[in-house]
Specification:
alpha/beta, Barwin-like endoglucanases, Pyrimidine Nucleoside Phosphorylase, Chain A, domain 2, 4 domains, six-stranded mixed β-barrel, globular
Length: 494
């Protein structure tokens, strides 16, 4: 233990953080992101360590606003600093890593600590890793889901049926959600659709929607949009629905990690928090999908159904072809261009994206009691009703009527490179994971104009025909992408 003079900093760190001089840190034997215990008067608190010798001397300790507000510290006074034992959540994460089940109280504690920013990214990463390595039982997944719902905002709507659709992800392109929401809202269903940003893919629905629309809204704003249009297409993170999930997703994205128990709890907690009563879950399966076989897909589907029964939600699972990308564009802007081409029925629209969107729309409509759903879904799309509904949703979210201006100003990256077939043959495989990774090399989803346009899917190809076009804002990244294509071979021609 050492005594250090207090230097209060007028900034919010998001969690209790101390700034130490490197000499003081060495004396305490602590490093960046370690924890120390602070004793001031009769109060004690744990804080995360940062080291910045230019801000404090070896006899000082800098305190964030969070610490000052709790301990009521005064500048120039001394505070006792010692290395901290594991937090309660630390012990619980270690318990899971040792293969033991976590109780309802255990998981509530961990999720509460995540929500209140009391765990570092490293600690959250250990929790996600514990879930991945040891798995969670059905009971643990229920407890995790409940804890995630409990710590966030809950939306309530007056309608008896609140519909939602979710794909577990992993398929390049596959931007069906905006089309499904437009079709089903035009059919009279209520869909307060909240989506996530990309975790391991080139873009999430929220990333694609943000190319033409505002996606961050308050609870009050969501209710107003849904009341007017019957639907919304928003980012769930801005609402605070199951807020712990967004912090865990951030870590999963950094680690490029997919964790099945977290996937289940993540999807279900956000649907429950959004007030959903009828949910369609799309589980694509295939060689390069998250789920490899129909058998694995059905095992996962059963877990969703068990969760839905526990929470008294009407849920249906569909198992779809995930053997190759859906649509032509991969990346935020390119995927939105696909969506618009299907809704506008323009020449050259991706047939596979249209077909899948009609299928998913009809399945959700049937789940909600609409008869002759397949024909109605097709009619709504072909008549232009879905496109008009989509325009209404976007204009309402943007609080203006600039839809045409928005879609006409969608940017594609300045640098493009067409990749052509070096010989005639047959494309036998397009690897979803590798295509998503290739897009990330090109800069997606951060650079919305980057990505890939697929000219071909599985099937015959002639020498010299374009396979795909790369879009990027950086010459260096284009070179990296070309190297990736050569080494990883995301598209196989035989």
């Amino acid at each position: 233990m050492v005594k250090l003079k207090i230097k209060n900093f007028d900034w919010l760190a998001g969690k209790p953080v101390v700034i130490l001089n490197s000499e003081a840190a060495q004396k305490l034997n602590v490093h960046v992101d370690d924890r120390v215990e602070l004793s001031y008067g009769h109060k004690k608190i744990q804080a995360v360590v940062d080291i910045f010798s230019k801000l404090v001397t070896k006899n000082q300790i800098g305190l964030s606003n969070e610490i000052r507000s709790i301990l009521k510290t005064k500048k120039g006074c001394c505070i006792e600093v010692s290395t901290a034992d594991l937090t309660e959540s630390g012990y619980l994460i270690r318990k899971k890593l040792s293969g033991k089940d976590l109780t309802k109280e255990d998981l509530t504690t961990i999720i509460s600590e995540i929500v209140h920013n009391n765990l570092t990214e490293a600690e959250i990463a250990y929790f996600a890793s514990a879930e991945k390595i040891e798995g969670l039982s059905n009971k643990e997944v229920i407890y995790l889901t409940e804890a995630m719902v409990k710590t966030g905002v809950k939306l309530k709507f007056k309608q008896k049926i609140i519909a939602d659709k979710h794909c577990i992800g992993g398929i390049a392109g596959n931007r069906t959600t905006p089309i499904v929401v437009a079709i089903c809202a035009a059919a009279g269903l209520t869909l307060p659709k909240t989506s996530s940003r990309a975790i391991t893919s080139a873009a999430g629905t929220a990333d694609a929607m943000e190319t033409i629309s505002k996606v961050e809204f308050s609870e009050k704003e969501i209710k107003k949009i849904v009341s007017k249009t019957g639907a919304c297409l928003a980012w769930g993170g801005s609402l605070g629905l199951a807020p712990s999930d967004d912090k865990i997703i951030h870590v999963e994205r950094l680690l490029n990690l997919d964790v099945e128990p977290q996937l289940l709890a993540s999807i279900m907690s956000k649907k429950i928090a959004a007030g959903s009563t009828h949910i369609l879950i799309d589980i694509p399966f295939g060689k390069s999908a998250k789920v490899k076989t129909i058998r694995e897909a059905k095992k996962l589907g059963l877990k969703f159904k068990k969760l839905a029964r526990h929470f008294k939600i009407k849920l249906q699972v569909v198992y779809t072809d995930g053997s190759q990308p859906i649509g032509n564009g991969v990346g935020p802007v390119l995927e939105m261009l696909d969506v618009l081409s299907v809704l506008q029925r323009t020449l050259g629209f991706p047939v596979d994206l249209r077909t899948k969107s009609i299928f998913l729309s009809s399945e959700l409509m049937k789940l909600c009691g609409i008869k002759d759903a397949r024909n109605k879904a097709r009619e709504i799309l072909d008549s232009g009703e879905a496109y008009e509904k989509f325009k209404e949703i976007i204009n309402t979210q943007n609080k203006n009527k600039n839809f045409n201006k928005k879609i006409n100003s969608l940017p594609l990256a300045k640098i493009k490179r067409v990749i052509k077939a070096k010989r005639s043959g047959k494309i036998t495989h397009l690897d979803n994971k590798k295509i998503n990774l290739l897009c990330r090399v090109l800069g997606t989803p951060e650079t919305i104009s980057s990505g890939i346009y697929l000219h071909k899917h599985v099937g015959k190809i002639k020498k010299g025909e374009p396979i795909m076009t790369l879009y990027c804002e950086s010459k260096t990244k284009i070179k990296d992408a070309l190297r990736f294509i050569k080494e990883a071979k995301p598209i196989i021609i035989k």
